[in-house]
Structure to design on (241 residues):
């Protein structure tokens, strides 16, 4: 059975990705950090669509937690293989660099960039030996062009973009693809405090995107049909560049 692990699958974009991947036939492993209720809601939505899945709690910033949880999962699921990994967990904690605290800098990088390293390193070997893998990293327009007030977030996402391109070259001949998806403004808890009315003036599509629109792209990248696409950063922004 082919499985997909989605970090931060309890809410927002991650929730929509879990549902979309389940619809394409993946058994979905829904990771979350603390929101057990929303993780259970994602699982309920996956099963309501006729899919299968399970929830798996761990903190992507904690290498020991990631290693022990995934080792235990692999040991007790010998007949299943994690063939797709979506590194989606992320936070923003904006401030002008001048006023940014060390913890604001470190936390944002820890979740996005170190989280990517912890999960990807753990799951790469089984993908290589199975000669099939799909690694999809959710980055941001902020990491592509840089946004004021987000030096921490832009640095984290730009770091993952570099890692995406480098890793894609390392593993392409083994049937493992590595791509990044860079959303613009998407309607989730993360953007709830932003003024959509003001920000849409800069978005050619004149609206925020929906998590399901990002999920559809991720589902394609996680499929066998995307086998010749690797090392790419694909923007999904309603025309905002
Ligand atoms: P949400 O705030 O809605 O959800 C964040 C998710 O990340 C939650 O499931 C949360 O789990 C999980 N998470 C946070 N920290 C950890 C951790 N340490 N370990 C494991 N899971 C964790 O975010 P979005 O859905 O908006 O964002 C998802 C991704 O998309 C992020 O990487 C974000 O940077 C990126 N993105 C979002 C955009 C947007 O406009 N919304 C635009 C561009 C990129 P829990 O529920 O347990 O707290």
């Amino acid at each position: 059975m082919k499985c997909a692990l989605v970090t931060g699958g309890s809410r927002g974009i991650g929730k929509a990705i879990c549902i979309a991947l389940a619809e394409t036939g993946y058994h979905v492993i829904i990771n979350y950090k603390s929101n057990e209720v929303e993780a259970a809601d994602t699982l309920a939505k996956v099963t309501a669509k006729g899919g299968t899945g399970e929830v798996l709690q761990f903190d992507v910033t904690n290498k020991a937690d990631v290693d022990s949880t995934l080792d235990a999962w692999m040991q007790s699921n010998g007949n299943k293989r994690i063939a797709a990994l979506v590194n989606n967990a992320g936070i923003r904690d904006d401030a002008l660099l001048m006023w940014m605290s060390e913890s604001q800098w470190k936390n944002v990088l820890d979740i996005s960039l170190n989280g990517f390293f912890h999960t990807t390193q753990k799951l790469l070997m089984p993908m290589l030996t199975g000669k099939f893998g799909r690694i999809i990293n959710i980055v941001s327009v902020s990491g592509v062009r840089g946004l004021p007030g987000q030096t921490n977030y832009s640095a984290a996402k730009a770091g993952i973009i570099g890692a995406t391109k480098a890793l894609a070259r390392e593993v392409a001949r083994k049937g493992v693809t590595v791509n990044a998806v860079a959303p613009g403004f998407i309607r989730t808890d993360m953007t709830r405090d932003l003024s959509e009315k003001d920000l849409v003036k800069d978005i050619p599509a004149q609206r925020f995107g929906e998590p399901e629109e990002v999920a559809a792209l991720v589902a394609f990248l996680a499929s066998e049909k995307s086998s010749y696409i690797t090392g790419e950063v694909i923007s999904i922004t309603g025309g905002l560049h």
Notes: DSSP finds eight helices and seven strands in the chain.
